[in-house]
Amino acid sequence: MTSAAQAQASGARTAHPEHLGHVIFITAAAAMGGFLFGYDSSVINGAVEAIRDRYDVGSAALAQVIAIALIGCAIGAATAGRIADRIGRIRCMQIAAVLFTVSAVGSALPFALWDLAFWRVVGGFAIGMASVIGPAYIAEVAPPAYRGRLGSFQQAAIVIGIAVSQLVNWGILNAADGDQRGELMGLEAWQVMLGVMVVPAVLYGLLSFAIPESPRYLISVGKHERARQILSEVEGSEIDLDARVTEIETGMHREEKSSFKDLLGGSFFFKPIVWVGIGLSVFQQFVGINVAFYYSATLWQSVGVDPSDSFFYSFTTSIINIVGTVIAMIFVDRVGRRPLAIIGSVGMVIGLALEAWAFSSNLVDGQLPATQGWVALIAAHVFVLFFALSWGVVVWVMLGEMFPNRIRAAALGVAAAAQWIANWAITASFPSLADWNLSFTYVIYTVFAALSIPFVLKFVKETKGKRLEEMG
Question: Is the pTM of this model over 0.90?
Answer without folding.
Answer: no
